[in-house]
Automatic annotation (TrEMBL):
Glucose-methanol-choline oxidoreductase C-terminal domain residues: 404-510
Keyword set includes Plastid: no
Family: Belongs to the GMC oxidoreductase family.
Signal peptide start-end: none
Cofactor requirements of the protein: FAD
Pfam families membership: GMC_oxred_C, GMC_oxred_N
Start and end residues of each Glucose-methanol-choline oxidoreductase N-terminal domain: 237-301
Keywords: FAD, Flavoprotein, Oxidoreductase
Protein name, entry field: GMC family oxidoreductase N-terminal domain-containing protein
Length: 525
């Protein structure tokens, strides 16, 4: 092993953070330098902005993450802050569309809601924190079950997994009972209606401190620890290029976005975890172009609805006293609307979908006060089915050697189409959503399919595989084929068709990749 190996990590989201943590714990003499293109939002690096109580501070943190669509660039497009123009797609708060319509925008007409976050903690500063495990064919076929169980437990530890958050909420319990009455009989054992596992620390008052990359980094950002002395996070620092020769990476060329200065940072190992579009873009820009790079793009399609919970049905299961005490508890945490999280997981062969059910006191949009469902004392659920997309080489991103994007990287175009089989599963999931909604109450918003890209869970563009046959970018330990010391991480590695939130899976894959990379560095001794 080099006496004091230096590891460069590109991207500060949950996956880059998992690599940094595991590598520093495995290699007591190593140093990690993490590069992040966006700004640090919170005093504790990578914390979830959902934990910010002050609404103005929360809005500012989100705006700072929104890259080209906020601030000066948005103004240059003639769109004042806060204004949504008809026909324009908007990104979820804290994220920015890749195809934002201005100069240097990506081209994503077939995947219009594709978005990213550019900030310390990445999308992990904005995420919902749902961390279900993959099941049946969603799992990585070439990692055996015993190893997978250990990896996923390690990932759950890094993410501060909670199996039963809000499990004591009587309303959450009543929602589960009603859904179970509707669907329970036909769901297999172990895959019925239940609570949705989430990432964070429950507090004694019943609220949650949601997990961000900060919890994954753990000791790396605690003052006075050995790991902290060997960890450096450089925000507003864009990695421009991975330098390499003959399959060996020597380091990265970075641009300090505060000064515009470019410099080279030597590294013994480079880990690229810069999301499912910008990681392959960086590889492409660096002349690393395996045939599968950017291809096999998948997400899970989302059919959603909002329901006003029915007073009679809920009242049959929850006493008035319980409702009042739940409302009193909720009023302590007005800034964090989610009060119970439930789900029906993916199972095969009969339930190839994931249902996610979030209970909140208010609907996610303003209801006209004259609407009969406005001000519903029992509250609302926002729920949606995730529906899978099967990997195909035709779906994916192509990069241009002629046109550059707003960051000066090869611009890209996303090509993507749903097949008849996928449309059929979307129709079946929509029918189920109607049943689920009718079981719980009245429709405030009818079931609808969100535009492609809305899941924010983009997979497959740097998929892992067992052989270097042109259908994968990385080996089973996440190392880029034909490279000694270049590792990739993130949802882009997932080679399967998935219906659920992928971050837990990607952290588990990262734990495996980091341990293998540490073993290789040790073997070089
Ligand atoms: P990211 O978190 O996207 O981080 C990548 C980072 O790399 C970014 O900060 C980016 O600025 C940086 N970067 C890019 N290019 C460069 C470069 N050249 N140089 C330096 N830095 C660079 N997932 C779930 O599993 N469950 C959920 O409930 C869930 N809910 C979500 C809700 C929302 C609103 C959002 C936005 C996402 C949600 N996700 C959820 C997705 C989840 O956040 C991502 O799966 C996760 O953050 C991916 O981690 P990552 O580290 O691979 O990438």
């Amino acid at each position: 092993m080099p006496a004091h190996p230096v590891i460069a990590v590109v991207g500060s989201g949950p996956i880059g953070s998992a690599y940094a943590r595991v590598l520093l714990e495995e290699l007591p003499d190593a140093r990690v330098v993490m590069f992040e293109a966006g700004p640090q939002l919170t005093p504790r690096p990578g914390a979830s902005v959902r934990n910010i109580a002050d609404p103005e501070a929360k809005a500012l943190a989100r705006q700072k993450s929104q890259g080209p669509q906020s601030g000066a660039l948005r103004a240059s497009l003639g769109i004042p802050e806060g204004v949504v123009v008809e026909g324009m797609f908007t990104a979820r708060q804290g994220t920015h569309l890749l195809d934002f319509g201005g100069e240097g925008s990506a081209h994503a007409a077939q995947f219009p809601a594709a978005a990213a976050a550019t900030n310390v903690g990445g999308q992990g500063a904005h995420w919902t924190c749902a961390i279900p495990r993959p099941a049946f064919s969603e799992k990585i076929p070439f990692i055996d079950d015993d190893e997978w169980e250990e990896l996923v437990e390690a990932a759950e530890g890094l993410l501060h997994h909670q199996a039963a958050a809000f499990a004591d909420s009587p309303i959450g319990g009543a929602i589960r009972t009603l859904l179970d009455r509707e669907f329970g009989a036909v769901l297999p054992d172990g895959y019925g209606v239940g609570t949705l596992p989430v990432a964070g620390d429950p507090q004694p008052d019943g609220s949650m401190v949601w997990a961000g990359a900060d919890m994954v980094l753990g000791p790396l950002i605690e003052a006075g620890t050995d790991e902290a002395s060997r960890f450096e996070l450089r925000d507003l620092t864009l990695v421009r290029r991975i330098e390499h020769e003959g399959g060996v990476v020597s380091g990265v060329t970075v641009e300090d976005l505060r000064t515009g200065q470019t410099s080279f940072v030597a590294a013994d190992l480079v880990v690229v975890a810069a999301d499912a579009f910008r990681s392959p873009q960086l590889l492409w820009a660096s002349g690393i172009r395996p045939a599968a790079l950017g291809r096999y793009l998948t997400e899970h399609h989302v059919v959603i609805t909002t329901i006003a919970l029915d007073a009679d049905r809920m009242g049959g299961l929850v006493t008035d006293e319980q409702l009042e005490s739940e409302l009193a508890r909720r009023s302590l945490h007005a800034a964090d609307p989610v009060a119970a999280v439930n789900r029906i997981p993916f199972s095969e062969p009969d339930h190839p979908y994931s249902l996610q059910v979030m209970y909140a006191e208010n609907p996610p949009f303003q209801l006209d006060p004259s609407d009969p469902q406005a001000g519903n004392r029992w509250g609302y659920v926002n729920m949606g089915y995730g529906v899978r997309k099967h990997p195909r080489v035709e779906d994916g991103v192509t990069f241009s050697d002629e046109e550059v994007d707003y960051r000066g990287f090869p611009n890209f175009t996303i090509e993507y189409e749903l097949t008849d089989a996928e449309n059929a599963e979307i129709s079946a999931a929509t029918a189920r959503l109607r049943r689920a909604g009718a079981a719980l109450g009245a429709f405030v918003a009818p079931p609808r399919l969100l535009p492609n890209g809305s899941s924010l869970h983009y997979m497959g563009t740097m998929r892992m595989g067992t052989v270097d046959d042109g259908t994968s970018v990385a080996d089973p330990w996440s190392r880029v084929w034909s490279f000694d010391n270049l590792v990739v991480g993130g949802n882009a590695l997932i080679p399967t068709a998935n219906t659920m939130n992928p971050t837990l899976t990607s952290v588990a894959i990262a734990v495996r990749g980091a341990r293998a990379a540490a073993a290789r560095l040790r073997a070089e001794e």
